[in-house]
UniProtKB/TrEMBL annotation:
<dbReference type="InterPro" id="IPR012337">
    <property type="entry name" value="RNaseH-like_sf"/>
</dbReference>
<dbReference type="InterPro" id="IPR001584">
    <property type="entry name" value="Integrase_cat-core"/>
</dbReference>
<dbReference type="GO" id="GO:0003676">
    <property type="term" value="F:nucleic acid binding"/>
</dbReference>
<protein>
    <recommendedName>
        <fullName>Integrase catalytic domain-containing protein</fullName>
    </recommendedName>
</protein>
<feature type="domain" description="Integrase catalytic">
    <location>
        <begin position="105"/>
        <end position="266"/>
    </location>
</feature>
<dbReference type="GO" id="GO:0015074">
    <property type="term" value="P:DNA integration"/>
</dbReference>
<dbReference type="InterPro" id="IPR048020">
    <property type="entry name" value="Transpos_IS3"/>
</dbReference>
<dbReference type="InterPro" id="IPR036397">
    <property type="entry name" value="RNaseH_sf"/>
</dbReference>
<dbReference type="Pfam" id="PF00665">
    <property type="entry name" value="rve"/>
</dbReference>
């Protein structure tokens, strides 16, 4: 009001300040953006350029939990909005579904794994598949196998390779695909004393951990690039998997990375 009185009615600054009971210091104050705000803006720009699928939540958790900055989330979000970095998300119509029973949360690594397939196409139209395996305890991606065909023998070989460095799981949760109900996989699991837990047909929510992981795979790299060869897909999958496990905060486990949660459980 004091500024308006000075500008519109041509009164002196001193008179306007006395009229509205404020000091001249307050009247003349101008907020100065510190160099720290420039650092925040620089970090946000670099993160959203390198990780185009990350929204504000992942960016803030990365800065706080991975890089250790103590910036207030309101301050970071204000700068995020000023830079117009908001993700444009098309709203989807929500279907009314019955509330599923909550999944059991494993209390230690290698207690329960989940695995599932995904499908996509190369640039020449040839279809390929990926086999995704995660540890439900810390949502760690244990492997992404890529090829034109992934029969039960290939699934077993991939699991053996993971077990060599990670250890044996107690349970592997799967759907009812032909690879998972084959005699080859069931005989392998019985020999290693591993339980193959099949979900009910038509109930993907019973395998929610891997379904949510598949969505991240699709959103952050599989659906973002056009690949020419299987080798390209496998190479990209391997590099993204390292980022997912070591550098990407996961909101489902408290905003830390899968590798951080694994270290906390050691």
């Amino acid at each position: 009001m004091a500024m308006q009185a000075v500008q519109d009615h041509k009164v002196s600054v001193a008179l306007a300040c006395r009229t509205f009971s404020i000091s001249e210091t307050c009247y003349r104050y101008g907020r100065k953006l510190g160099s720290e705000n420039e650092d925040i803006a620089d970090w946000l720009l670099r993160l959203t350029t390198a990780r185009k699928a990350w929204g504000f939540g992942l960016c803030f958790l990365y800065l706080r939990n991975i890089k250790g900055f103590g910036w207030n989330h309101k301050r970071v979000y204000r700068i995020y909005r000023d830079l117009e970095l908001n993700l444009r998300i098309k709203p989807r119509k929500r279907l009314v579904r019955e509330r599923p029973e909550p999944l059991a949360v494993p209390e230690q690594p290698n207690q329960t794994w989940s695995m599932d397939f995904m499908a996509d196409q190369l640039s020449d139209g040839r279809s390929f598949r990926t086999l995704n395996v995660i540890d439900d305890f810390n949502r760690e991606g244990l492997g992404i196998e890529v090829d034109f065909s992934l029969p039960a023998e290939r699934v077993v070989r991939s699991l053996n390779r993971i077990i060599e460095w990670r250890g044996k799981p107690g349970i592997i949760r799967v759907d009812n695909g032909p690879e998972y109900i084959s005699g080859t996989l069931l005989a392998w699991a019985e020999k290693r004393n591993i339980i193959i837990a099949h979900i009910q047909p038509g109930k993907p929510q019973q395998n929610a951990y891997i379904e949510r992981y598949n969505r991240t795979v699709r959103h952050e790299w599989l659906g973002c690039f056009m690949f020419d060869t299987i080798t390209e897909v496998q190479d990209h999958a391997t590099r993204w998997l390292w980022t997912y496990n070591n550098d990407r905060p996961n909101m489902a486990i408290g905003g830390i990375t899968p590798r951080q949660k694994l270290k906390m459980a050691a």
